[in-house]
Amino acid sequence: MAVIGIMSAMHEELSAVLAAMPDEQVVHVAGREFGVGQWHGHDVVAVLSRIGKVAAATTATALIERFKVDALVFTGAAGGLAPDAQVGDVVVASALLQHDMDASPLFPKHEVPLYGRSRFDTDTSLSKALAAAAEQVLSDPAQHLGAQAMADFHLLLPRVHQGLIVSGDRFVSTTAESQALQRSLPEALAVEMEGAAVAQVCLDYGVPFAAVRTISDRADDDAHIDFSRFIREVASRYSLAILSQWLMHR
Ligand code: SAH
């Protein structure tokens, strides 16, 4: 049976996933705890990605080399860049790019040297299935979120977007930096700190990859406000519901 790797960026998300796999075994590799078990009848290995590109690449490599995952899905939060990527929306990546990669003038800006590319595509059918699961979950947010969180974060009509997510080793939390990113990468929907690194590892190994991120902030001067509460009360619940919906119908 295919083994599915799930990388979560946050503790809250991972513990919700592990709680859905009651008989999971914990295996330690590279200082990380991998939860090996079953969810909706699928073999699943779930692990905390850790934060930043290098940490996430190590985690992805271990999932592939040691746990032989046949597909890898990343869930977490991201800062919205495109004007319509609002807090509470979900972005399913169609491609990822490292916004802080710049070996110019030797290589074009953002191109990963020796890969001949800056964008790393996600797996089309995996992404399509996850986007469908996200549409289903977001069609009735009240089923997954508390009324107070929905009111406080203005989550009445959340939307699912598909497109480019950019990654870099910076928490983008100033309006100036967010605007600079939007100018240099106008197609980017959202910014985070791991996805493009994992996409690159998955390309190296030929493992299908998909990434689903809930917009937790607008990557501006207010980005840090209520971040933890949003992760706990919204992003983690969406991740769990989307993954569960996806695996149930896979
Ligand atoms: N205070 C947090 C810090 C997390 S860093 C904690 O206690 O863990 C932010 C995480 O969310 C990263 O994993 C990153 O991928 C994502 N993220 C959310 N908003 C972001 C933003 N504006 N810029 C960069 N990464 C963001």
Instruction: Output the radius of gyration.
Output: 17 Å
How many strands, what sense, and barrel or not for the largest sheet?
5 strands, mixed, barrel
* Percent strand: 25-35%
Helix coverage percent of residues?
25-40%
Helix tally equals: 7
Molecular structure report:
This protein has 250 residues and is of the alpha/beta class. The chain has helices at residues 11-19, 53-65, 124-138, 147-152, 175-184, 195-205, 227-248; strands at 3-8, 25-29, 32-39, 42-48, 71-80, 90-98, 119-121, 160-167, 188-192, 209-217. The chain has a 5-stranded mixed β-barrel, surrounded by 4 helices. Strand 3 and strand 4 form a beta hairpin. The model has no long low-confidence stretch (mean pLDDT 95). The structure holds S-adenosyl-L-homocysteine. Residues 9, 51, 76-79, 171-173, 191-194, 216-217, 219, 223, 227 line the site of S-adenosyl-L-homocysteine.
What's the structural blueprint in terms of helices and strands?
Blueprint: E1 3-8, H1 11-19, E2 25-29, E3 32-39, E4 42-48, H2 53-65, E5 71-80, E6 90-98, E7 119-121, H3 124-138, H4 147-152, E8 160-167, H5 175-184, E9 188-192, H6 195-205, E10 209-217, H7 227-248
Parallel strand pairs: 1-4, 1-5, 5-10, 6-8, 8-9
Antiparallel strand pairs: 2-3, 3-4, 5-9, 6-7, 6-10
Helix pairs in contact: 1-7, 2-6, 3-7
The structure holds S-adenosyl-L-homocysteine.
S-adenosyl-L-homocysteine binds at residues 9, 51, 76-79, 171-173, 191-194, 216-217, 219, 223, 227.
